# Entry
Amino acid sequence: MHKKPANGIRSKAMKPLHVNAGSARGRKLRSVPGDNTRPITDRAKESLFNILRPSLAGAALLDLFAGTGAVGIEALSRGAGFVRFIDNKRVAVETISANLVATRLGQGAHVVQGDAFAHLAGKPDRPFDYVFIAPPQYNHLWKRALLALDANPGWLVEDGWAIVQIDPTEYEALTLQNLDEFDQSKYGNTMLVFYERKETSQLVSL
# Structure
């Protein structure tokens, strides 16, 4: 199916969020009040979807710590078949729901208010082509989420990817059993790190 090639920090001068391309191109998105979310920059988002474009049509994406929902909504706008958005804050869930209404992309979406770690620890109800991880920064939450996914790789299809959005200063190489890091890209203070699921014959049962 795939692929191979392969955060942003909120700033005071952050441009209004919008959909870059696809059926909802140009539609403005609401921001989550406060400064606890990590909206991806336009540059990083455009580069990310240039990478995903060849295999995005009909794909399923799990958007963890979804915030405004900008990444998952961009995926739906560009042809993804299904996106599950998860955030533990009600205000974020309400923002995502409003943005889905504004972009008319709600039919392919499932919005969940809940804990991302508890979700990853549960029995997968379906596999995803992509899992996008962009938690609040500097608290090592990305590592915790990635390790939880590594311990429960059934959330990913056999050739699925996990994509982590962090500040470059947060990065460190991790010892993983069922995922392999294969690429990373930097866009100013945004870093995207790409992991792929190992072949089924190589998976380690934890």
